[in-house]
């Protein structure tokens, strides 16, 4: 039994008009009787009070409508770069996408980042050039910009008349041929539509393109259950709700689902999307997106059954952090709970609390995200907070090999265990590799049951200890090997006194590891980005010296007539400085596009974070 469902993402740079386009599509499909306003906060997808106040999308939202025989689950995504992680999670569940571009502003930095991700994941994509009714709209210029900056594999699907006026319209060229349909569904070609979400011009043609050119899912309803969780939210009573894209099979109320490492829970309620909003149902089937209740331990990224495809992280991790504290000290416990719930919805904010000072830190993409967290804590949890200065998130890497051991019953060892550890450098961006080089007979199997269980727990202890290195930053790109191990069993009658416990190994691990780190030495590394500047050619003489003053090695510019491109690699903080300077240096015409490029050693004094 097959069902045609299309899970469609709407993506764009902020203010390109994607939420208004979502409203227009729902109106054209007969789901709503009137088009909501972003400015007035009356749209279907920007339902959060904070989204309505700011006029931006912060959380992805799902709505549903039908185009002929295709059921479309449309996911409206954030456009601001501070919420790129929210977009990333959506990409893993899409069958196709519409990338919205303003006919006035054209291709913008976030547009390029999104297009690269869509191409990398081979998501079939239609381009919609919006706002053809606006003064300053220039479809031909935008089309050329798309070809130059995004992809040359495009084909206009019609012509624009009366551009820049309220009468602007779109005339399609004709029915799409089979070759065009096939190339689009294979993500080898991107058809370009023009129109106005505000007036409705061109939207009917776009809807026809969505139904004809993008591949609707044909999931096997009777196959094994297979799905992926891409969004978590809390209901009115604080209950956890998981958004699941089903790839095959069917999940029903009262089904017991296994997910994560060992969790298994019973589904207590289900909602599916139908004509705009979610409605309670008895099941969610292949190809559909559903909301599931009852899965209390489920997390974003968890698979239900075996996922049919996995998506690696495509966007940069957060590169800034700040300490957050309640204005009222009595709210500290409530703040921890609130931030834990926010981290369920956005795991990359990585809430951390120091063992000694008990300070709470969060990771950030930028200032707007920080402001949203502050406003959310105030409006939804009633907690007023302050933030310490936002600083980069550095990492530490070993510069040599170091080894240490603490022997059972030695004066320097307060724990009932022997642990020896060696730490060595590993290639950049490889993370932490933990290995065992001990006799299994020396492992405390009466505590950990199996040697594999002991190895797994030691791996966890080591990774936890590496969250703070010599300078207070997380240690990465290293190999840690356990070289020695013994445990204590008391002589005489059975007694627990003097017997090694899991706590002995857990607490001794960081002591030994820090000794090994001190002997190996570490270097602090700062996050860097590869920066591409697109600037008017006549401003090269102004921009190049400014980039050089930031300490960057500038590559020779690429000249493209009136526009030129400069590429370089900069620490993330200096890239932000350059972003602020760029409008003044280029008369407002420059565009900065950046992508995460890893970490590089800090020259001079090593930045420290309080341990």
Key terms:
alpha+beta, eight-stranded mixed sheet, globular, six-stranded antiparallel sheet, 35 strands
Structure commentary:
- The protein has 611 residues and is α+β, with helices and mostly antiparallel strands.
- 26% of the residues lie in helices and 33% in strands.
- The chain is built from 14 helices and 35 strands.
- Helix 11 packs across helix 12 and helix 13 packs antiparallel against helix 14 (572-586).
- The longest helix is centred in the C-terminal third of the chain and has 19 residues, at 502-520.
- The chain is globular, with a radius of gyration of 27 Å.
* Range of helix content: 25-40%
From the alpha carbons, calculate the radius of gyration and give it in angstroms.
Answer: 27 Å
Structural class, from helix and strand content? alpha+beta
Oligomer: single chain
Determine the N-to-C terminus distance: 58 Å
* Main beta-sheet annotation: 8 strands, mixed
Tally of extended strands?
35
Strand fraction: 25-35%
For the residues shown, what is the average pLDDT?
A: 86
**Cα shape:** globular
Which regions contain 5 or more consecutive residues with pLDDT less than 50?
none
The tally of helices reads 14
């Amino acid at each position: 039994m097959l069902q045609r469902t299309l899970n469609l993402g709407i993506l764009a740079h902020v203010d390109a008009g994607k939420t208004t386009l979502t409203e227009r599509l729902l109106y054209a499909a007969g789901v709503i009787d009137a088009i909501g306003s972003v400015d007035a906060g009356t749209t279907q997808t920007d339902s959060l009070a904070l989204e309505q106040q700011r006029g931006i999308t912060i959380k992805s939202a799902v709505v549903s409508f039908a185009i002929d025989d295709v059921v479309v689950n449309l996911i409206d995504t954030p456009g601001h770069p501070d919420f790129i992680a929210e977009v990333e999670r959506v990409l893993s569940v899409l069958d196709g996408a519409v990338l919205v571009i303003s006919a006035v502003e054209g291709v913008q930095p976030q547009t390029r980042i999104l297009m690269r991700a869509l191409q990398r994941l081979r998501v079939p994509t239609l381009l919609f050039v919006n706002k053809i009714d606006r003064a300053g709209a220039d479809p031909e210029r935008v089309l050329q910009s798309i070809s130059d900056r995004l992809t040359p594999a495009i084909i206009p699907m019609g012509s624009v008349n009366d551009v820049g006026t309220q009468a602007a319209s779109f005339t399609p060229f004709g029915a799409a041929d089979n070759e065009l349909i096939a190339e689009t569904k294979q993500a080898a070609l991107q058809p370009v539509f023009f129109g106005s979400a505000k007036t409705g011009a061109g939207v009917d043609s776009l809807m026809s393109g969505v139904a004809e050119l993008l591949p609707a899912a044909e999931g096997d309803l009777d196959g094994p259950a297979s799905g992926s969780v891409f969004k978590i939210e809390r209901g009115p009573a604080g209950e956890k709700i998981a958004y699941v894209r089903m790839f095959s099979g069917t999940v029903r109320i009262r089904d017991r689902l296994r997910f994560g490492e060992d969790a298994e829970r019973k589904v207590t309620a289900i909602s599916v999307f139908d004509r705009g909003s979610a409605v309670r149902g008895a099941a969610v089937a292949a190809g559909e997106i559903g909301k599931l209740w009852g899965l209390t331990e489920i997390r974003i990224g968890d698979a239900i059954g075996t996922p049919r495809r996995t998506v690696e992280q495509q966007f940069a991790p957060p590169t800034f952090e700040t300490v957050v504290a309640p204005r009222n000290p009595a709210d500290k416990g409530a703040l921890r709970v609130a931030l834990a719930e926010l981290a369920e919805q956005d795991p990359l904010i990585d809430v951390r609390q120091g063992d000694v000072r008990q300070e709470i830190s969060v990771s950030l993409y930028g200032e707007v995200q920080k402001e949203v967290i502050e406003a959310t804590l105030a409006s939804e949890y009633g907690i007023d907070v302050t933030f310490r200065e936002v600083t980069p998130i550095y990492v530490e890497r070993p510069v040599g090999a170091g080894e240490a051991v603490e022997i059972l019953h030695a004066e320097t060892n307060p724990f009932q265990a022997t642990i020896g550890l060696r730490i060595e450098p590993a290639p950049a961006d490889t993370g932490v590799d933990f290995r065992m080089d001990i006799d299994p007979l020396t492992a405390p199997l009466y505590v950990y049951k199996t040697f594999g269980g002991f190895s797994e727990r030691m791996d966890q202890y080591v990774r936890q200890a590496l969250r703070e290195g010599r300078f207070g930053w997380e240690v990465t790109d290293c190999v840690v090997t356990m070289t020695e191990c013994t445990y204590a069993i008391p002589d005489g009658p059975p007694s627990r006194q003097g017997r090694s416990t899991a706590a002995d190994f857990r607490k001794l691990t960081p002591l030994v590891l820090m000794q090994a780190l001190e002997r190996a030495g570490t270097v602090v590394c700062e996050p860097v980005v590869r920066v591409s500047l697109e600037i008017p050619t006549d401003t090269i003489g102004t921009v190049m010296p400014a980039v050089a003053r930031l300490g960057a090695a500038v590559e020779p510019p690429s000249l493209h007539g009136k526009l030129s491109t400069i590429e370089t690699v900069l620490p993330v903080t200096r890239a932000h400085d350059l972003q602020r300077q760029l409008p003044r240096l280029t008369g407002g015409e420059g565009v900065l596009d950046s992508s995460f490029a890893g970490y590089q050693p800090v020259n001079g004094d090593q930045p420290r974070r309080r341990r």
